[in-house]
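User: I've been trying to design a sequence by hand for this structure and keep getting stuck. Would you show me what you'd pick, starting by listing the structure so we're on the same page?

Assistant: Good idea, let's start from the same input. This is the structure you sent:
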């Protein structure tokens, strides 16, 4: 089964061809980073226009790289939410037009379900897919949550952030440090050379026993520290980044451990852009070795937004007979509650 995945929910125009739900035949991503960097963040209207300009070449590229023709496809999967409304529309309308012209089924995919599905794709970093049930930590620019995943589309939320998402905290702190957009990768790089115990930033653990997150206090602590001592340079900047990153990582690891204990499960999946963070990956690997749980983190390219994960999630829906009609629309606020419905 060959499925074309399409992803345009934010600042990446992406298309991929997935074979039998697991094998990545092609994976094309046109990033808009350079365009938005000028403004210090994603400008929704600019994102929509960029998607419009790149969607057709990206779709063609994915088909060519897969070595197939459009007519070889068995279905099309497209992100229909959550995300930027104008950006989502470009992908959904392209998918519907293609599906109609080719006479192939189309299915709408929840972007979060896509992130959760990334770990089911074949990749050198993973020996195989995670068994069900498992706990999943989703850490992206828009979401930070822990789930119990009982089966494909059978997802219940265990906890979530009460304010900022982890990726948002990385991006905001990077901005305060004058590192520009996008911030997560830049902090990751600088943190690698720094001392994570140089500064003591707060670890917010709202409600000792729950598995929710809060990152707004940490962001305020960073801003206060910068007001007090100015923006650090060179080695002090590396120490600052390492200390901030350690505070985020510490909380993510603690809450994931708690979720595993609470559910009695022994498998942890980690996904979303922040899962590309080297400090988080190392800390989770250490926790897995200590506690004896098995850890599944996609290769960094499949952690950040991509269309291969949408193709994977969509393949499962298409195989179950889910079909979207021409009335398929976008839902910028689509929540995790609709994961099961796909
Ligand atoms: O999953 P994603 O690509 O898009 C959303 O669905 O939000 O996640 C993007 C977020 C951004 O906040 C970005 O700064 C963060 O993931 N991110 C990272 C790293 N790479 C991306 N954060 C920390 N370390 C990284 N290496
Ligand atoms: Zn995402």
């Amino acid at each position: 089964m060959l499925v074309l995945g399409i992803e345009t929910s934010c600042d990446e125009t992406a298309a991929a061809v997935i074979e039998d739900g697991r094998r990545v035949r092609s994976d094309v991503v046109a990033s808009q980073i350079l365009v938005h960097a000028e403004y210090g963040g994603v400008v929704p209207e600019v994102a929509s226009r960029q998607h419009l300009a790149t969607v057709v070449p990206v779709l063609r590229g994915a088909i060519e790289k897969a070595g197939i023709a459009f007519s070889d496809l068995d279905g099309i999967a497209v992100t229909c939410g959550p995300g930027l409304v104008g950006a989502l529309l470009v992908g959904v309308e392209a998918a519907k037009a293609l599906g109609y012209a080719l006479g192939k089924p189309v299915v709408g995919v929840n972007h979060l379900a896509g992130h959760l599905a990334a770990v089911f794709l074949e990749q050198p970093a993973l020996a195989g897919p995670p068994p069900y049930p498992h706990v999943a930590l989703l850490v992206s620019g828009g979401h930070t949550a822990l789930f119990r995943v009982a089966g494909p589309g059978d997802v219940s939320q265990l906890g979530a952030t009460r304010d900022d998402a982890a990726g948002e905290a990385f991006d905001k702190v990077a901005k305060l440090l004058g590192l520009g957009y996008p911030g997560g990768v830049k902090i990751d790089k600088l943190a690698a050379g720094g001392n994570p115990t140089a500064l003591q930033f707060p670890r917010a653990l709202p409600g000792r026993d729950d598995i929710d997150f809060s990152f707004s206090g940490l962001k305020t602590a960073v801003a206060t520290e910068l007001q007090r001592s100015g923006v650090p340079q060179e080695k002090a900047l590396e120490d600052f980044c390492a200390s901030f990153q350690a505070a985020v990582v510490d909380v993510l690891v603690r809450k994931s451990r708690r979720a595993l204990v609470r559910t009695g499960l022994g498998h942890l999946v980690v996904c979303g852009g922040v899962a590309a963070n080297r400090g988080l990956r190392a800390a989770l690997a250490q926790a897995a070795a200590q506690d004896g749980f098995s850890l599944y983190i996609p290769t960094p390219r499949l952690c950040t937004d991509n269309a291969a994960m949408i193709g994977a999630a969509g393949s499962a829906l298409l195989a179950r007979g889910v079909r979207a009609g021409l009335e398929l629309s976008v839902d910028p606020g689509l929540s995790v509650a609709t994961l099961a419905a796909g």
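That's my pick for every position. To get oriented when you compare it with your attempt: The pocket of KG4 (ligand 1) is lined by residues 10, 140-142, 167, 170-171, 182-185, 188, 272-274, 276-277, 304-305 (CB under 6 Å). DSSP finds eleven helices and ten strands in the chain.
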